[in-house]
Amino acid sequence: MGGELRAAHWGLQRAAGMDLVPSNDFSFYDRVLDTCALVGAVPARYGGGGGQVDLDTYFAMARGAQQRGRDVTAMEMTKWFDTNYHYIVPEFDRDQAFRLASHKPIDEFQEAKALGITTKPVLIGPVTFLTLGKARTARFDRLELLDRLLPVYAEVLSRLVAAGATWVQLDEPCLALDRTEPEREAYRKTYAFLAQRVPQAKLLLATYFAGLDDNLRTVVSLPVHGLHVDLVRAPRQLDPLLEAWPAGTGRVLSLGVVDGRNVWKADLAAALTLLERARDRVGAESIWVAPSCSLLHVPIDLDLEQRLDAELRGWLAFAKQKLAEVATLTRALGAGRGRASAELEDNARALAARRASQRIHNPAVKRRAAAVGERDLRRASPYASRRRKQLALPLYPTTTIGSFPQTAEVRAARRQLTDGKLTPAAYDAFIEEQIRKTLRLQEDIGIDVLVHGEFERNDMVEYFGEQLDGFAFTEHGWVQSYGTRYVKPPIICGDVSRPRPMTVRWSTFAQAQTKKPVKGMLTGPVTILQWSFVRDDQPRSETAKQLALAIRDEVQDLESAGIRVIQIDEPALREGLPLRRADWAAYLDWAVNAFRLATAGVKDETQIHTHMCYSEFNDVIRVIEQMDADAISIENARSRSELLEGFREYKYPNEIGPGVYDIHSPRVPSTAEIVAGLTRMREVLDDRQIWVNPDCGLKTRGWTETLPSLRNMVEAAREMRAATGALVGRAVDPRERAGHT
Ligand code: GLN
Ligand code: ZN
């Protein structure tokens, strides 16, 4: 199966006219985990040992394992730079040993060669690999491990050369981020070592997602045969780079001019201008034309989209179309613009049509966004006074993050609705039944704040996008999120507004079934922005503000409909952080304001929750206070000690639910381990602050593990209450005061 996919993709790239097709970009889980396997960085609890890393061990590291007497949690997972693609975080010990423990890059090179294709194997570079990992035991400088790691990389390169490889790409995206002088030194040492050990390998050093900036001098001094830079994210790095480029060395400059992170057609004329400038300076033979980064982050083929209207389709390019753009640019650069005049003219026409299109501009939306003022961003009272007016709940209140298992049955019903095999009325009845069942289960288990389960949602962003103006949808635009999980990001193509309520129907239905509070569940503006393909013709901050206003209307409508707890998920807030620290403050300012704009319109009595997951949370720990949610739930189970440390140094004032178990693993947590985790949290948080909830939504889980996990969770909360005392003093339940059911 893997082999078939690889063969198909190599063939596709060859057919599109690519001269040098990559290999080892295929992964069963993610490329960082592949690298752990490659160099034998397998933590002892997975049975590290010697020999090759087998698939069972590989998947145990990725997902945890609870079978045949083995009970081990998964490794930590986090997002790959500012993307929604996740990787497994490598763990290193101070006395970490490395060995060649997988032949994947060599095997796949040979596999392609057998098909007649000499590929360019792609590896994650050693410094980026160490930088992305974590020291497991006592803190130490991970870069100290280079001395032990580099010989393994040299061995991989030697074997690739022996198998017939010439070019090998080493991805070092960290080299485009903020680096200290010792870190730059690590790069110098690494590439000097590899050049000296394996001089036959032509190394292409690949950077992307940001500019080289202050690392430029270091980069051009490295003894590599080629350098790839991202000119979409950082076009301004070109001139200083050309300035510093050592002439006459025959080194290759790979220029990423086609956006690998977004779905819009490239501006071919503008890209050509950059390419020609580079060519005139360093010579045609030294320039390669390329996408800005891996095309993993965009959908595969626009030709598959039958339902997108022709106008919009005319503005877009997916991976396959981007390869064609690269081919056109290569031809125009090599043989002159005249040799590609038809394509260039088509492209210019498409771009002009998009700029002028009526459908992307809505004057009412622009006026409303321009009128937003300071007081729209502030709740009526501070948290301490709001708290007294909000629901009465026991100490250590329990809740979940929103979704319940999206079973095959739920997905089948949605498909039948789309295919017309189920009437809308029958589909609604099905969803109602799921909600009723889920509420009953939560009541039985004894959860305090219930959720309706999100069965009606295909995806937390797509669901909202489908109901908002200014969005477009693909049928097949899947993009990998983690492991075998894919998402289908909507395309924000125009000004955003909410024509009608989006979630009120299901939330009020759910609330009517139970006396317990049911949380309204929305996706926040920054997350919708971050997990969509966004328009590139206005600042992201402007689009975020439009989204925030749409969500604000929904929050207001939920409140009016009697919903007393409303959660606005912002799991992507951290991942939206610019990669260079100098840009953080400006981003956080507009991102936090977008959240506040979405939520601040409610009464004191309405409890606002937010949720974040798989974030390097400590980077934004102070920012959550500014968001001023009454309660936040956060991913925590895979990186417990880190959060603890963060809260040791910083006292968060509002309520917080540090996730008590990992929902990306089918493993059932025991009550004792949940109690132990909560007890550790008590070291840094007050009893009255702590909520008890899983790490994230349960949609990817099955019911068989969900029910016992939640039972253990509720039992753990009861033990905490018994151990720590009575109810928190809160006001009377406002619903009862108002006298409705
Ligand atoms: N409410 C969403 C859910 O439970 C949150 C998902 C997320 O944070 N990624 O599915
Ligand atoms: Zn989450």
Descriptive account of the structure:
It is built from 27 helices and 22 strands. A seven-stranded parallel sheet has the order 1-7-9-10-11-12-13. It folds into three domains: 1-36 and 79-224, TIM Barrel (Alpha-Beta Barrel), CATH 3.20.20.210; 245-357, no CATH class; 392-740, TIM Barrel, CATH 3.20.20. The chain is α/β, with parallel strands linked by helices and 741 residues long. The longest helix is centred in the middle third of the chain and has 22 residues, at 424-445. The relative contact order is 0.08.
CATH third-tier fold name of the largest domain: TIM Barrel
Q: Major sheet: order of its strands?
A: 1-7-9-10-11-12-13
Which descriptor suits the 3D outline? globular
- For the CA atoms, what is the radius of gyration? 26 Å
Q: Say how many strands there are.
A: 22
Terminal CA distance = 55 Å
Identify the CATH architecture of the largest domain: Alpha-Beta Barrel
Strand content: 5-15%
Share of residues in helices: 40-55%
Mean pLDDT: 93
- Judged by helices, strands and strand pairing, the structural class is alpha/beta
Please, how many domains? 3
- The biggest beta sheet, please? 7 strands, parallel
Spans of at least 5 consecutive residues with low confidence: 726-741
Instruction: Give me the number of helical elements.
Output: 27
The CATH class of the largest domain is Alpha Beta
